[in-house]
Amino acid sequence: MQNSTSWRSFRMAAWLGWVIESNWTDPFLFAVYSIVKPISGAAILVVMYGIISGGNFDTPLFPYIYLGNAFYIYVGAVMTGVSWAVVDDREHYKTLKYMYIAPINIPIYLLGRGVARFITGSIAVVITIAAGIWFLNVNINFAEVDWLLFIVTLIVGVVMLALLGLLLAGVTLTVARHEGFIGEATAGALYIFSGAIFPLDVLPAWLRPIGYFMPTTYWLELLRRSLVGNVAAAFPTLANFSDLQILGIMVGLSIFFGTISIWVFRWCDKFARERGLIDRTTNY
Amino acid sequence: MEAVSRKYSRKYTGWRLFWNTIIARAYPRIVGQQREVSWLVFDLIMPILGVVAYVFVYRALNAPEEYIGFVVMGGAMTAFWMNILWSMSSQLYWEKEQGNLALYIMAPNSMMAILLGMALGGMLATALRAIVVTLIGVWLFGVSFTVTNYVQLILVFMLAMVALYGMGMMMASAFLLFGREAWHMANLAQEPIFLASGFYFPIKSLPFWVAAGASIIPLTLGMDAMRQLIFPTGFKFGFLTVHLEITILAVLCVVFIVTAKVLLGHIEKIAIREGRITESRR
Which residue segment(s) compose the domain that A49 sits in? Predict the structure, then answer.
């Protein structure tokens, strides 16, 4: 019974999220919207890189930046996809209270709401990488890609991001007026500390430990290594670690942050119920 | 009888009403926003995160120091573009969603004055944030400025702001016709504009016609001119001469404000005719 409730919660939330995300316009405009934003974000970095390097896209730094930025789309999409559901349901549609009294599992429902952003994020990631391969000489040889490592890393990473999203959703339940910023600020901070678009060695030495503590750092490193093996050797940050060691660190940190996320969500959920915050609207 | 003769019962008409409407609408932007301290923190953190990320990219690429300054300036100017998108263009849409728009139209004041008030308040409140972002950027990354011509710098900034907020007023009218797509449209107009307008690199680096097309957004030429005026080697990165950019910005000011006035009247009529003033399409 519990399993079927969880599955139903997840399935219906995923469908609801997809409908909310996609049916505000016709499919063509939706496709344009889904493509233009990530491509523009990547193009800013490409132009910056092109100006300084004089158009030399063959150095290891370029695929490092490009792939890091492309996969980072998942961080914003999945993490804020889950936490934004609280804002959407409570403030915008004013339906969160109905969700709470419905026979569904709330954390699973929120995780399901993140699926739509995961799908649109995946489309953006694929298009961004394809543009890099076709137009910018991002050298990915599909015959040499470590597919097993890539798929395992991607799955573990997406689960980890979804659980981090649950943590943010819990915090969002307890605050007013600025809940929309929480996801963006967290994603923005992780962008800097995960070595997404520059090696961690560029950060001041006293800030680097924050990056080493973030599972996203190892996630992005493994994704790059699985697609373009020689990129890893070009930067000293994690060069001394083997793929397996990095995978082990990432899984360990993911379990650690996942456990904290579940615990924080439960605490925030209880707090929000006690204080009557589930149906609070602020009109902000 | 005594009640109606009190200060707040005084009836304003004509330009006094117009002016007081501007001040009344600007007030929550200037004073109200400062009261929400946590918003101030987020308003500052978000642009700074972007600035820090792009500065470190340039550092990783061993870029000349001017580029760090370009990023800090671009990061500060993002505050204005975000304000235009979320607090000008989308504002009438939000007001409609919350039920205030009908009250604005019913009240015996000019909608143009309301838009001007929004613009004035938004401009001043955002300028405060942009200054803080610049100062933090300067402090964090040791950026140095050398102003070559203060008069031109002030003129460029003022013209860019007037044209930009004129554009915001114009877009506010257009957004009035949007339903749920308003949020997505505003969201869509971020990264592509940061790219096309050269927020983080000199616009001269883009192909000429792309840069020329992007010049319709006042911040494009405004930032290009300011970079030429405040960085010692900025003139090397200029897209057009500062004089020409000042002229174009002046033209854009007139075009956008006049268009905003015409469009507001026209779209208000359409919205009333089609019954969209009080609708809420969630």
Answer: 2-275
3-class DSSP state for residue A58? Answer: coil
Report the first-to-last Cα separation within chain A, whole angstroms: 39
pLDDT, mean of residues A121-139: 89
- How many angstroms separate the CA atoms of B23 and B102, rounded? 20
Q: Give the separation between CA A22 and CA A24, rounded to whole angstroms.
A: 6
Q: How far apart are CA A65 and CA A45, in angstroms?
A: 8
Please give the angle made by the CA atoms of A233, A239 and A243, to the nearest 5 degrees: 95
Q: Where are the domains of chain B?
A: 17-27+36-273
Does A178 contact B180 at a Cβ distance shorter than 8 Å?
Answer: no
* pLDDT score recorded for residue A244: 94
Could you tell me the sign of the dihedral formed by the alpha carbons of A229, A235, A240, A241, in that order? negative
The whole-angstrom separation of Cα B6 and Cα B247 is: 48
Chain A residues inside the 8 Å CB shell of B180: 24
What pTM does this model have? 0.87
**A51, B56: Cβ pair inside 8 Å?**
no
- In this structure, is residue A218 part of a structural domain? yes
Q: Given this model, what pLDDT does residue A61 score?
A: 87
Residue B42 and residue A178: Cβ atoms within 8 Å?
A: yes
Is residue A113 within 8 Å of residue A16, measured between CB atoms? yes
- Contacts of A56-60 with CB under 8 Å at 24 or more apart are A57/A136, A57/A137, A57/A138, A58/A137, A60/A230, A60/A231, A60/A233, A60/A234, A60/A235
Count of domains forming chain A: 1
Residues of B in contact with A199 (CB under 8 A): 60
B138 interfaces chain A, CB cutoff of 8 Å: no
pLDDT band at A223 (very low <50, low <70, confident <90, very high): very high
Contacts of B241 (CB under 8 A, 6+ apart): none
- Which amino acid, one-letter code, is at A80? T
Q: Which residues in chain B land under pLDDT 50? A: none
Contact B203, B220 (CB under 8 A): yes
Residue in A81, A64, A76, A228 with CA at minimum distance from that of residue A149: A228
pLDDT in tens, A91-103: 888 899 999 999 9
Tell whether A240 is covered by a domain.
yes
